[in-house]
Amino acid sequence: MIDYPELTKAITYPIIIYLLLIALARIIGRKLLGQLTFFDFVTGITLGTVAGSFVTTEVQGYYVLLSLAIFTIMVIISGYIALKSMTIRNLIIGEPIILIKNGKIYEDNMRKIRYNQDILMMQLREKDVFDIEEVVDAILEPHGKLSVLKRSKDQPVTLKDLNIFIPNKGLPTELVKEGKILEQNLKKLKLSHEWLFNQLAAKSIQKIEDIFLASLSSEGKLYIDLIKDNPPLEK
Question: DSSP letter at 12?
């Protein structure tokens, strides 16, 4: 028999808790994501624990499982709505915020998101920036990370700057994995079993089962690691 009061709580409580958590996360700010201090960690864990405990305490019996499903559905729905609506996306996820422009710190923006100078300098150092005057733009992303664009003269020299062209390297293709030949990869490279066994024979490898990993680079170099070729552990 359906217990309608419990069913109602199982549906409404997760929705209320989800919306409340989003609101609290927006109030706390993106610093919680960007630089997780011990205090931030305790705060995040406490919020999640209190919210989960409330639902499991108030919703009785197997209806609590329905609450989990409702919470999951809310996450999916909010993600879909955020995908379709820029307004909702900015409300839920937030927008990038400029913290530095042409070497000038935007103190008002920092106060708006309760961002202090110590955290800003720490994130700049993580980007190998020790002089703020080197920064053209520093933007705090919605996920809490800092994106930094240096002045051209302070950026590392690239091969393009030196007019040097080097062909792009592709990812190596696995041919053997844990003693099994990856047939589809061989076919993709238009290689045969005969070619593979000849390559292995040249390296004195008799059995496929002895190979932990064999891969072919975009330059045609074959890498092989055997299962039983581990060096002795250092004591």
Answer: H
Residue pLDDT, tens place only, 197-223: 999 999 999 899 999 999 999 888 999
Neighbours of 41 (CB within 10 A): 11
Question: In whole angstroms, how large is the CA radius of gyration of the chain?
Answer: 28
**What's the confidence (pLDDT) of residue 37?**
60
Structure token digits, residue 113: 């998101």
Beta bridge partners of 177: 180, 213
Please identify, among 154, 187, 203, the residue that sits at the C-terminal boundary of a domain. 154
- pLDDT above 60 for 233: no
Confirm if 106 and 100 have CB atoms less than 8 A apart.
yes
In a domain, 210, yes or no: yes
Grade residue 181 by pLDDT with cuts at 50, 70 and 90.
very high
Domain that holds residue 198: 173-226
